[in-house]
């Protein structure tokens, strides 16, 4: 267990500018997805500030730990992380799924949370790729 915590600590100890880039990108991404979910009446957070707890305090550290892994591994570990998040969000009723939403109609109500977890697991490899591109463009352009 000590080895695991050492590994995690080494992965999350990053340049403050990189951490800020992750936080800004994921915060805006979370606000956008919550807005989209409300507009399309698919799902939403019960409280707006859950964007901070889910996207910044939960997803950013996981993204940092998964950073540098192959796409399929980031997705697989991300699927576990998002499965736990989706399950707990709906079980604790801190997330709200609109009745008869488009995903329910397309996949059926029993597959809603699974579909959400499968979709949101893509955040980790895509987020790491996107933040890496933004960070490089902003902070390494002068070194080329």
Automatic annotation (TrEMBL):
Origin superkingdom: Bacteria
Keywords: Membrane, Transmembrane, Transmembrane helix
Spans through the membrane: 18-36, 48-66, 75-92, 112-131
Name used for this protein in its record: Uncharacterized protein
Natural source organism: Flagellimonas allohymeniacidonis
